[in-house]
């Protein structure tokens, strides 16, 4: 790990996190507006992509079943929350980092509340198919699976980086996180339960929550 000189001023990392959160908030607001007003090019693109992937899902039942297992068990929001809960316990028991444990739990909880509030406010219908390969409840926008995976994986990656884990552990965690975040979004579209813009919205909002949470943590523990 690189150790900063005692005489060197601290880097304004919290400004980077705040700036990232601002950009992500603007992007999220723009996409939310386009979805709410049903902007024609977006709706057309969503329909074209979803129609194509649904045909593939019907034609490839084996792959579709594998994606159902991944999205319903491995990358399910409750799986992500249980992973977060395990890390919270580890922070308290092994590191005595109570403030960080509370911060992590609150960040994931607030991300879930934001997701549910937007679903209720936008009330976007999910795709409807004559031959569905899967089903889902509640409104479509944003994708809860994509947002939950982004929030949990993003926060846990940042904690690993902050604690200075070995390069091998960091690379493994990064690969698992990237595959999980991208993979869960693709499976939701493949299974025909989300429009592509639902997944994009979940990714943007999840990244925004991560950036805001990191900014809060850095201001408290620079």
What does this structure look like?
The protein is an all-alpha fold and 222 residues long. Helices cover 76% and strands 0% of the residues. The chain contains eight helices and no strands. The longest helix has 25 residues, at 98-122. The two termini are 17 Å apart.
Give the SSE order as H and E letters.
Answer: HHHHHHHH
Strand content: under 5%
Largest sheet: none
Span between N and C termini? 17 Å
How many beta-strand segments? Answer: 0
**Rough shape?**
globular
Uncertain regions: pLDDT < 50 for 5+ in a row?
Answer: 1-10
Averaged pLDDT, please? Answer: 93
Rg (CA only): 19 Å
Transmembrane segments: 21-39, 78-96, 101-118, 138-160, 172-193, 199-216
InterPro entries: PAP2/HPO, PAP2/HPO_sf
Organism: Streptomyces violaceus (Streptomyces venezuelae)
Domain Phosphatidic acid phosphatase type 2/haloperoxidase: 100-214
Descriptors for this entry?
8 helices, Phosphatase PAP2 family protein, disordered N terminus, single chain, 222 residues, PAP2/HPO_sf, PAP2/HPO, membrane
């Amino acid at each position: 790990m690189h150790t900063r000189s005692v005489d060197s001023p601290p880097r304004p990392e919290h400004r980077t996190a705040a700036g990232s959160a601002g950009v992500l908030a603007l992007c999220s607001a723009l996409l939310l507006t386009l979805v709410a007003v049903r902007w024609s090019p977006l709706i057309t693109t969503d329909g074209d992509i979803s129609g194509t992937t649904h045909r593939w899902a019907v034609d490839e039942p084996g792959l579709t079943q594998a994606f159902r297992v991944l999205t319903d068990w491995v990358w399910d929001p409750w799986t992500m929350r249980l992973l977060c809960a395990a890390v919270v316990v580890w922070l308290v028991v092994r590191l005595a980092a109570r403030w960080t444990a509370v911060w992590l739990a609150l960040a994931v909880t607030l991300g879930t509340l934001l997701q549910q509030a937007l679903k209720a406010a936008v009330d976007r219908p999910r795709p409807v198919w004559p031959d569905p390969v899967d089903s889902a409840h509640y409104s479509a926008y944003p994708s809860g699976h994509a947002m939950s995976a982004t929030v949990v994986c993003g926060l846990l990656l940042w904690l690993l980086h902050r604690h200075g884990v070995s390069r091998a552990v960091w690379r493994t965690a990064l690969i698992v996180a990237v595959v999980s975040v991208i993979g869960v979004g693709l499976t939701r579209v493949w299974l025909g339960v989300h429009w592509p813009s639902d997944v994009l919205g979940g990714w943007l909002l999840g990244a925004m929550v991560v950036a805001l949470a990191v900014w809060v943590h850095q201001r408290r523990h620079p």
